[in-house]
Amino acid sequence: MAALDKMVKNVFNLLGPDLEENTNTLQRKIELLTSRKDDVHMELQYEEYSDGKKRKREVEEWLINVEDIITEFETLKEQVQCCKVYTRQKLTEQVEIMTNEVTELLEQSYFPKGLFHEYLASRFLRRMLALLADEEMSRIGLWWGRGIGKTTLPNKLSNESTFLDHVYHVRVSQGSSIYKLQSDIAQGLKLDFSCENDERRRANILSEAFKRMGRSVLILDDVRKQIDIEKIGIPVGMNGCKLIITSRSKKVCHQMDCQRIIKVNSVSEQDDWELFLKKFGSVKLQT
């Protein structure tokens, strides 16, 4: 039976398309497509979180299609390697169809109109940027208006540098103590508090660390009640250290002595705030 299969296969090779050769050609195209996919990924990772950019849906769909066809090719290649005589014609047709699809994906891969939508900075974003650029402005409060669902701020932030050198984001859990907040902030600053339990000494260490680093922003997210910043060790207003708090309560923003208090009125403004976070540089995130 094996001899008969081999004989018939030789006849197909003489009279019909060369399945193996066509599969090898398809594999080379798949390798080119994989390289192009990697290039697109690198460009996206470098730019997608910079100012006001959002990935186009057609780029997302292209990446999904590429991943799918690469997976499908691995299955097809296995079928070709162990195919029987009676399946060659069908596999030959599948290889031809896939080759055309891969060729089309390669042609689509250069996106002449770019990978991103470009958005002009909204009024909300321009306002936030102006406040942080103001050297006299060191405490800013954001509070979420009625009907706006307060969500955890995004944990994937840009590595692009801007006019601020460091941004640290700490989510304040309900009932957080001074000691706990000191520990969370220290972790972001890569300070070792394992041998230091005195809150005053911990506050001094934090304060000196902030002063040394220069321009910085600490975001205290979802503050439920007044927090004593000095006891924590945050030298707001010194050496470019700025504080942003977000809260469900306008009263808390006043209690925290915020110089400017901004109400987030809509879901779109909440999205703008998330986009605003993506403008900053060296980020350490605590959640």
Automatic annotation (TrEMBL):
It comes from the Eukaryota. Keywords: Plant defense. SUPFAM superfamilies: P-loop containing nucleoside triphosphate hydrolases. The keyword RNA-binding does not apply. InterPro entries: NB-ARC (IPR002182), P-loop_NTPase (IPR027417), Plant_NBS-LRR (IPR050905). Signal peptide: none annotated. Pfam families: NB-ARC (PF00931). Residues 132-281 form the NB-ARC domain. Gene3D superfamilies: P-loop containing nucleotide triphosphate hydrolases. GO terms for molecular function: ADP binding. The keyword Oxidoreductase does not apply. This is Probable disease resistance At5g63020. It comes from Olea europaea subsp. europaea.
